[in-house]
Amino acid sequence: MTESDDLLHATATDLRLSTFRLARRLRRERAADGLSDAQFAVLANLRLHGRLSIGDLAQRERVSAPTMSNSVDALADAGLLLRVPDETDRRRVNIEITASGLDIVAATVDKRDSALADALQECDFTDDELRTLRTASALMRKVAER
User: Fold this and answer.
1) Residue 68 CB contacts under 8 Å (≥ 6 apart), including other chains
2) pTM for the full model?
3) What fold does the segment set 3-144 form as a domain?
4) What are the domain boundaries of the chain?
5) CA-CA distance, 63 to 124, in Å (whole number)?
């Protein structure tokens, strides 16, 4: 293994560990305790991308259509999203977030951002370190969206 390979693998390990720990910590911050992480992800996707089909949602979340259908059923029962007939294809149904769903996503995002800001403040990072974290977050997003 080359020095470059060692750096790549060590970086992958460090990122995996820190990302999982941070994600676990942030997942605890919720506006609605009854929502699973998968259900919250559906609502967040709809907030970000607007009306989507179950197939599109499943593809974005990398789950099967039946799995997504179960999540959609639970969220629809809770009044957090609606099924809307497609205007051009009567066989197709689209999924749309409701005002209540939008409220939960916004409140959860606010709670998570506040919790993370508090954690960053407790670490007493310098401005240069905060800029480094912002640069690193852009690089991590690139990997995550691949």
Assistant:
1) 42, 54, 55, 57, 58, 61
2) 0.83
3) Arc Repressor Mutant, subunit A (1.10.10)
4) 3-144
5) 39
